[in-house]
Queue: 3 jobs
Job 1
Amino acid sequence: MENRIKVTFVIPSLRPGGAERVMSYIAQNLNKHLFEVTLLVIGYSKKASYDITGINLVFLNKPRVLVAFWPIFKHLYKSKPDIVISAITHVNTLMGIQSLWFKKTKFVGREVNVLSVLNNVQAASRKYPFSISGLTERSYKLLDIILCQSQDMATDMIHNFNAPKDKIRIINNPISDLFKPKEKQVDNKISKFITVGSLVTRKGHDRLLNALSKFEGPFEYYIIGDGDKSGEIFGLAEVLSLTNKIIHIPFTKDVSKYLKESDVFLQGSYVEGFPNALLESCAVGTPVLAFDALGGINEIVEEGINGFVAKDESDFLLKLDLITKRTWDPKEVSDSVIKKYNKEKILKDYENLFLELTK
């Protein structure tokens, strides 16, 4: 076990979120004979939603990324990792700056969104006295690798943020063991729809609700997730007379169970990175209907095999009627994504990248 490659994962928190879940999953499942792994969490241990085992877990217990610069610096100076991999734009920006002091360490920034579109869809939650986009562009160029989850994201980084092509890599998100295919299509008396995701602007709950208010068939709609736009979203549901059809679950560790019990996964996002919940719905055998948007949706959804992509609201309603009347083979739906995004393949992609960086 000596001479293992030391890899430090840096994430903002262990609260519910796709980036946090994927990064912690990769960290825990890397080959322990090759890698010595630390998961460095900027946020508070008391707010952790995931159980982390088998690796070194360090909480900095800081309220936000901006005040964690020196604690992260001190940790890296003491631990001297071979590779640092971070996720989410503001953390990647910070780590790009830190790379100036650690010339022997390779820095990987894992982007989670198509940034140019996200900036137009969703306003920043905080106002800073400098240009985040300008700082991001300069800082990302300091990273050794910019890791993208989809081709859309890679294209955006090159064309809109002038990222050097030779620093771009694409590794999709993995499907964990929690999402096994169901044996047969569920036989619900009325259609059961589900959406899993943060209640924020970019997730497009508004256009899902607007479309569902025009859907003529009976249905139940499960919304799993929480966020700062919950008041607006459920206020809109009330205006559209949908409140009695909605079951809201702010957080659950049984996402797989709810996905299996549903007939169709609905996604309204205006932009994605690589949508974990949509991928996981396919993995359990539940077909999906998504509004067309940048961020890997076109890579996951195979028309008529595991679901459909809708161009607009009228197209969404036509395809929702079609998807609810059709008989789906859960195994076929599941196989369509397992063959491309199984954990063995994605973990091997990460391991090969880390080995390449330390040659």
Job 2
Amino acid sequence: MDRKKRNRFIIITAAILIVLLVMIIITGRRESEEPIRMVMKDAVLHEHAKINFFGIIDANPALISAYTVTAIIFVFALIVRLFVIPKFKKIPGKFQLVLEQAVGIFDGLATSNSPHRHKFLGAYVFTAGAYIFIGTMFELLGVMAPTTTGGTIALPAPLADINGAISMGVFSYCVILSGGIAGNRIKGVLNTLKDFSLPISMSFRLFGALLSGALVTELVYYYVTTSFIIPVFVAVMFTMLHALIQAYVLTMLTALFYGEVSAQEE
């Protein structure tokens, strides 16, 4: 970078910082019209921010997010299966390489934890991991939807709602139970039922981790003096971190317990 370009970059950067500083000084520290307690409560429960679902029922925004993410994944998977996979080559291109690497990671996770029975497990952990990651990253798109009160709301991550997290935890527990039944019949069922707290712990671990990022972002946005740059950085970092960690944690726990209850004892 020559001196002229470097000076221009410095001037532009300084101008942006000065504008942001002036905006912060002008606005000052302004409390929101709604108390922070109510802001945090609405971010969790969405009692006052419902969305009318095709005139049938007033639904939680997270339910609309869940349907939207499911539709996106289904359409994408259908397109890939019909138009992309038939054109795969022995020397993979970039997209084929990324897809094969993603499948290989979850297949390796299933194989290492359940070498005796892993075909269905590999498919499930890949699907669950993809849903958690894409559903969490969906929050960053900021898709707005009208509420029943006349306002608008950005659709949250599907699993940031306690009902979605419990559904994912219970469904994963049922997959583990199916592995026990297939591998050891009644003994496998008993081994699975011994860990009766597993779906609760999986659900609340998933819910708590994803919700913490949303609450931190809401708290930062509550103050205008910090709502220019910091919330963007906080939202992106928390969302990406939780998407990766929670996708790995839930799939790892599912594969681990599935392998334990389905392993046949000598």
Job 3
Amino acid sequence: MNEERALDLLGGVEDPDLGEDVVSLGLVNGIEVGEGGTVHASLALGAPYSPTETAIAGRVREVLAEAGVGDVELSARVDRGAGGGDGGETEGVLPDVKNVIAVASGKGGVGKSTVAVNLAAGLSGLGARVGLFDADVYGPNVPRMLDTEERPQATAEETLVPPEKHGMKLMSMAFLVGEDDPVIWRGPMVHKLLTQLTEDVEWGALDYLVLDLPPGTGDTQLTVLQTMPIAGAVIVTTPQDVAVDDARKALRMFGEHETPVLGIVENMSGFRCPDCGASHDVFGRGGGEAFAEEVEMPFLGELPLDPGVREGEAGGAPIVLDEESETGGAFRSFVERAANNVGIVHRQRQARARSETS
């Protein structure tokens, strides 16, 4: 086995989303053939534990093993890209975080924080290293939703060590103020706080950092988009027209900052009655999917309005972790689609870069 033969074999491994083989797309960073026939392949895969990229890596191993390679070593490396911000503003920010996912909505009351918490917990459940940053300065809810009272610990270097729950590292304004204290701050103070909580928190090496943004399109969103390398955004809506109208504004905000949108998710899509088992469309149904189709964005799924979601939050256990729950299954499917779309964003960028240099 030599490098040329290995590349020829990998030319038969197709990316199911981009429709070409991994070699043609530029997804093979390099091949090394060691003593004894060991093959090490570096792949441009950027969404750890996403089902699609896990399958691509598995197929690479399979193809090489079928050709008689006894020991196959794989590694994944992909450039994050500029993400949000203007030019190089985000360069060097969160260098050990592979992917920053922003969860946003145009209005409050659509369950955005619930979606963010379950997205982070679901990614952790897949095996990823995850952080959850509650960036809703004025209305932080994440610590309550995870039933955690542990506070960040300060180090001698005046950095903060975030507490952990369900394998997630957590940071929230709620950790830094009294439980009932209002946050009455102007934009510059919010900007400074978010910058400090990005740079002065020991997030460590993470596969994903999920940002729970406040509703709307204000100072917090602007600060995040200008200073953090966003891999992609998830936009949350309910089926109602009024929620979809505001979600449209959030979509345009990300477009103006050239931030990839991973897709639209419809929350509170049908009420599942725990007594009769029937589903009732309290807020209508299909508005999020129709919106995604209209703006040509991926639809990440429907999340039911289920009392189990609230009960899970009251006990600090996100429903996505409940293997017996049908609603938990809907959340897990959403998590997998979001993770897969992170990978698509990275692989499309890699393919474009290859085509521009060839």
